[in-house]
Fold:
Amino acid sequence: MRDNMRGAAAIVGIGELKPERTRPGRDAMSLRAEAAYLAIQDAGLTKTDIDGMILEEGMTPTGSGYNPKMAEYMGIYPTFATGCDAQGAAGVTMALQAAAYINAGLCDYVLCGMSAAIDGSRPRRPAGPGHTETATSEFSAPFGPTVGANGWYAMIAKRYEKLYGATVEKRAKISVDLRYNANHNPMAIWHDVPITVDDVVNSRIVADPLHLLECVMPCAGACAFIVTRADIARGMRHKPAYVLGGANGVSRGNLTHVGEITISPVGRAARKAFAMSGYGPSDVQVMEIYDSFTITVMCELEESGFCPKGTAGDWVQEHDLTFKGDKPLNTHGGQLSYGQASTAGGCAQVTEAVRQIRRDAGEHQVPGPTDLVYVTGSGGTFSQQSALLLASGAAL
Amino acid sequence: MLRRNIASPTNAAPHVEPGFSTRATSALGPSALVLGRWSGSSLAGRGWVYASSISYQPAHPAFADDVPYVLAIIELDEGVRMHSNVVGIDPKEVEIGMRVEVAWDDVTPEISLPKFRPIQK
Structure:
């Protein structure tokens, strides 16, 4: 496998807006631009330095040509700009896209980002069957659309229960440890509310077998980061977070087309990412695992090689997943407790990894070493997942 | 929309990716129909519940009176998997592995949805 991307690029700037239930009067473009400017400032750059752009449309479809519209809005003139269609995996995928573009010489400073707007003054549009004839509108929606992805992941969780036995009593530990992390992060939407296993088990069932406190909720927010060449990164104001390895695993758009729905495609991505990096799962010091639902984390832990298939329920009991624990996981609170501003939720797991590597996470800084961080992204119904290894200079 | 005679897809080769899914069965699924791969033979309308969940929240007002309902993936005996609902049973009684048969729901004079009910022993 070609590994000339290993360590060739680094994340040098991060910017994000605190997830909120609504941000009245703010549209997605302005949220995204604000996070982008924060990232540019954090990197010690100005917008004239930005020559690459990977912005994702998220929840505000405005038709094609989205990056030129954002370039116009922000006053940036990139020489290479594309989108990203990786759904929830977009944060991780953009980092890999940017590293590849930089390694290919297409651009030097790539702005990546996305946002989600929820204007509380407007009634939320009901999610209904689309007007175009797709497999979803034809063969899925007529049997009842689900709120977000709740129904699909509930089916995965139910089948996981059938095959391996781990039910909400075991899954709940993930929600509780992540909430503890959020309780130490002022940026987290659930910063002020602690929870217990009983709270999770007794929360209402939204889609059987998933309980409310096992599911993300819609938020408004934005997240952005800047990627540049490693040799440039070394002279910049922050400690670089190097891209050591990464890959995507693409499965199927519809759950009906997947061989075994409890097997998620991050396994293929992880194997490639680890091979590129020269490290293995046991070397990882911090994990930022995409957590749309508790069951998502369990399948990804198994497929990524942290524990054998079917054992994640026990694994999360045996380990302390808090930022102070032996297996720090989703140190900012995860999307479950930090907040999921649509695809920016996955992006915030990338920026949190950078923060841990820089060692400036403040109250929720992992006390042990944070030189090698594993980040995943997940889109659709385990439709596409990405794995990324970020590292400090010490792990290069 | 779905019609009563759902043709089974031809070349329904098992979707098996080495190292990815060793238990994959045929999962070509309904979009093979969208793509126009028809064999002309009808499906028998029997299969089993591959996965299921109970929806308590209607995502669309049209389903407000239906909650709680069972959202499921049914694997037909011919090897095709499809989304559907399991009806004619208390949602909490539905189990993965349960044998089911088609129960047509004539939602309009033109449109019938293939839902599934347990096969009586």
Summary: Chain A touches chain B through 44 residues (CB under 8 Å). The two ends of chain A are 18 Å apart (CA to CA). The first strand of chain A starts at residue 9 and ends at 20. Residues 28-42 of chain A form the longest helix (15 residues).
